[in-house]
Design goal:
Layout (H helix, E strand, L loop, with lengths): L8 H16 L2 H9 L20 E5 L3 H14 L2 E5 L5 H7 L2 E2 L2 H7 L2 E4 L13 H6 L5 E4 L8 H9 L5 E4 L19 E3 L8 H19 L15
Parallel strand pairs: 1-2, 1-4, 2-3, 4-5, 5-6, 6-7
């Protein structure tokens, strides 16, 4: 079996970073105010957002995409980087001064918690009401991995109870999301229709690598980008 590594890392990290900014400044909600003719006089304390400088980014699954997200947050906002992985990411520790922590520490310390791991039996539903309850009340939850990673009903409940600031989602469960989902009307929530890899460059790269894998397979050669390279041993 083949996959298409690396080519979508930047594109997906860009979407995660975009969702973070949109949720922090209630951007979609503010845009809807214009459409609904609610942009009237200046109200200095209405619908305020929060700033990100010097905050802490927590990454659940610091692989290629998580590393690119961490680079953006570090470079743009001087954010401290913590992460939870099965093993150390030495590149992130050396280049970004990232620090590996337990899952509970990740929940407790993150001002932004961004999910970038694979959906497995161990990670399915990992972010439930119990997890959201441990987060800071100003925390922004970002998921660009898989919708099954978070329990959507629990996320809605946690947001309604002000257990966290907001959420940025490029993935939902199910997909497509119902247009009546309460998340779509929450001021500090930003939802996109799973567009993480939707750039010309990323999709062209994915198509090229998929073709290279297919051609190699038809020729009986080793796939250049196998998802299970152990089969060649």
């Amino acid at each position: 079996m083949g996959n298409t590594p690396d080519v979508l890392s930047d594109a997906t990290a860009d979407v995660a970073f975009t969702l973070l900014l949109m949720a922090s400044r209630k951007a979609i909600f503010q845009h809807k105010r214009i459409l609904n003719k609610q942009w009237d006089f200046f109200r200095p304390t209405a619908n305020l957002g929060i700033e990100l400088k010097n905050k802490t980014l927590g990454v659940f699954g610091l692989g290629r995409i998580g590393f690119e997200m961490a680079k953006r947050c570090r470079g743009a906002y001087n954010m401290d980087i913590i992460y939870h992985n099965r093993s150390h990411n030495l590149q992130a520790e050396n280049e970004l001064n990232a620090r590996m922590v337990s899952f509970d520490e990740l929940l407790l310390q993150s001002d932004v918690l961004s999910v970038h791991t694979a959906l497995t039996p161990e990670t399915k539903g990992k972010f439930d009401y119990a997890a959201f309850s441990k987060m800071k009340k100003n925390c922004i939850f970002v998921n660009t991995a898989r919708g099954g990673m978070h329990n959507e009903e629990d996320l809605i409940k946690a947001l309604n109870e002000n257990l966290l600031w907001g959420a940025g989602l490029d993935v939902t469960n199910p997909e497509p999301m119902s247009p009546t989902n309460p998340l779509l009307s929450m001021p500090s929530v930003a939802v996109l229709p799973h567009i993480g890899s939707a750039t010309v460059e990323a999709r062209n790269g994915m198509a090229r690598i998929a073709a290279e894998n297919a051609i190699a397979g038809l020729k009986g050669e080793h796939l250049p980008h196998p998802i299970n390279p152990e089969v060649y041993k």
